[in-house]
Amino acid sequence: MADDNNLTRRELIQISAGAALATAGAGPLAAQKAPLFFTKDEFALVDELTELIIPADDHSPGARAAQVAEYIDARLAESFEDPPKQKWRDGLKRIDAISQEMYGRPLMQATAHQRTAVLERISKNEQKPELPEEQFFNELKRDTAFAYYTSKIGIHQEMEYKGNVYLQEFAGYEVK
């Protein structure tokens, strides 16, 4: 060290890099930080809904492992416009209201079978959504798929993308 009160530029960079690595290496603890946009209850609901849409299976982890809810939460937190934010809040409230109507409890208190039934109800008119919950489902599904298939898990484990590879010979057609 230069002296007790002053750090050299190199020491400051080393400390900063070490702090960045320590934060990045926090793993599951880092993933449990507070949501940026959603309330904790809303975040739990989004996390469950995205996992219902893309569940873990024998081939690859699901939306929860790919941190899809965190991605959606961050994008909404970054949004300068209020309508997308309000659409999500209203959509989540509507899903809980449907669960309450169907089973007398919010979705997060429903059984796995009941949760699936609620999702089936809001997705039944996926091709021509008319009701607000059907329109919200389309947005939920679109955002879930985008976040999942642009994540490391979605790209490398689910789609098995190997990256650019060198071909020994040309595999296309010669244009003449």
Helical percentage: 55-70%
Strand content: under 5%
Assembly category: single chain
Using only C-alpha atoms, the radius of gyration works out to 22 Å
Structural class: mainly alpha
* End-to-end separation: 68 Å
SS field, number of helical segments: 8
Mean pLDDT: 84
Question: Please, could you describe this protein's structure?
Answer:
The protein is built from eight helices and no strands. The chain has helices spanning 9-24, 28-31, 40-53, 68-78, 82-103, 112-123, 132-149, 152-158. The N and C termini lie far apart (68 Å). It is an all-alpha fold and 176 residues long. The longest helix is centred in the middle third of the chain and has 22 residues, at 82-103.
Keywords, please?
8 helices; 176 residues
Summary of the model, kept short:
This protein is mainly α and 176 residues long. The protein contains eight helices and no strands. The protein has helices spanning 9-24, 28-31, 40-53, 68-78, 82-103, 112-123, 132-149, 152-158.
List the helices and strands and how they pair.
Layout: H1 9-24, H2 28-31, H3 40-53, H4 68-78, H5 82-103, H6 112-123, H7 132-149, H8 152-158
Helix pairs in contact: 3-4, 4-7, 5-6, 5-7, 6-7
